[in-house]
Amino acid sequence: MSTSQKVVVVTGASQGIGAELVNAFRKLDYRVVATARSVKPSEDPNILTVAGDIGEPATAQRVIREAIARFGRIDTLVNNAGIFVAKPFTSYTAEDYAKVTAVNLNGFFFITQLAIAEMEKHGSGHVVSISTSLVDHAIDGVPSVLASLTKGGLNAATKSLAIEYAKKGIRANAVAPGIIKSPMHAEETHAALGALHPVGHMGEMSDIVNAVLFLDSAPFVTGEILHVDGGQSAGH
């Protein structure tokens, strides 16, 4: 088994930004470990798919174990899996809270622990987490307390990881998107959602992919929360 090619793990990889990330990393000749609940097997021998609920510790263990068994290393982890439930704060149920925290927090915590443990063995690595611009710039009419509670935690954890592992050759960064054209948003909502951004339109999935690829190729950047949000976080 050759272990010279870089290996990236992408969570939430079955559709949308996650699927675009898989394609983009393959074009750069990375070997890719793609995981999601509904991810399908790939005919590409350089793509390993692992189906499972990323909020479960057992899924994280299986992803990392199979990644090492197949490819021998992990260079980059992209914590892309996430869910957004827009409700008034007092309307959130215990089930909403459990569902959002399971994916957004558990889905970050367990697999990041295991990936960094592997990165430490090689003295290098990179963790990129997908956050949200809403953490820094809440929008009237877009209730987002659970998103801010969980994704805001990822922003803070990103900075902590960056400092804790800086001298060990492991970087941590995050991308904080605005509202992106993806399967999450029906086309008839695009005009209204676009108007929420100072630039007047939604972002493309390629904008987030390009941001992740930039961070992965920038060895002097760590602890950065990169806003890709059409100016939202700057103001209105």
TrEMBL record:
Domain of life: Bacteria
Keyword field contains Oxidoreductase: yes
Oxidoreductase is among the record's keywords: yes
Keywords linked to the UniProt accession: Oxidoreductase
Similarity remark: Belongs to the short-chain dehydrogenases/reductases (SDR) family.
Stated name of the protein: SDR family NAD(P)-dependent oxidoreductase
Lineage: Bacteria, Pseudomonadati, Pseudomonadota, Betaproteobacteria, Burkholderiales
